[in-house]
Design brief:
Shape: globular
Radius of gyration: 17 Å
Structural class: alpha+beta
Protein name: 4-phosphopantetheinyl transferase
CATH class of the largest domain: Alpha Beta
Bound molecules: coenzyme A
Number of helices: 6
CATH architecture of the largest domain: Alpha-Beta Complex
Strand order of the largest sheet: 7-11-10-9-8
GO molecular function: holo-[acyl-carrier-protein] synthase activity; magnesium ion binding
InterPro entries: 4-PPantetheinyl_Trfase_dom_sf
Keywords: Transferase
Distance between the termini: 36 Å
Amino acid sequence: MSFYKEIAIHPTATIYLWKIEEEFIALFRQVSLKDTSLARLESMKSESHQKGFLAVRMLLQHLGYTDFDLFYDAFGKPHLKDGKHISISHSNDFSAVLISDALMGIDLEILKDKIVTIAPRFMDVNHLENLNQLDKIKKATVVWGIKESIFKIKNEKGISFPKHIFEEAFRLTDKRGLAQLKFNDLTEEYCFQFEFVDNYALVCAFQN
Ligand SMILES: CC(C)(COP(=O)(O)OP(=O)(O)OC[C@H]1O[C@@H](n2cnc3c(N)ncnc32)[C@H](O)[C@@H]1OP(=O)(O)O)[C@@H](O)C(=O)NCCC(=O)NCCS
């Protein structure tokens, strides 16, 4: 069992993390899956993706839910039958779920050098000025996570990370900040929080 940890980010919102140390078959044997989930699992090309998917079900079971309590809308956004909100992310050796009373989004990303190269495509690179290379990687990964998290909350077609989601300036030591979504003539304020777990950035966002 590789339940890793839980992080209470709010009185009514908790993040649960699974560190994937098991073989595929060990995970597979421990979860009960709906037929649709089984079909999805079989259609996944990489074993790493399959393990991430199964680890989410392990987390659900750890919390007293099963795969049968989870369903997806037409955009691929997950929902729980009991009305609580859920957001899901997986990256390499970790899976994360965020269970909350209010709508929230989560993103987990492994830290990679390449993020700094592609940063101009999705963020305000002024926010990377005067940082050493490691901090540039960390901050750009957090900004990516902020935008993925807000996207997961809104779940609307047409949202572009560089054109519609704007992070305000923040420091890595702040562990939180603000961002705006400007889309379809509306401006919405979001709070974000982040932390680093092993060599991953864990980010969540919620409406302010
Ligand atoms: C859907 C998307 C948010 C997934 O993010 P990702 O980093 O690839 O993968 P993650 O592991 O973090 O998240 C995957 C989970 O997100 C959830 N998800 C998928 N579509 C979703 C949606 N429309 N809304 C909310 N959550 C969604 C699912 O639970 C999925 O996991 P599961 O299917 O195994 O349950 C992402 O692929 C996407 O479409 N992003 C926006 C597109 C974009 O603008 N990209 C770059 C612009 S520069």
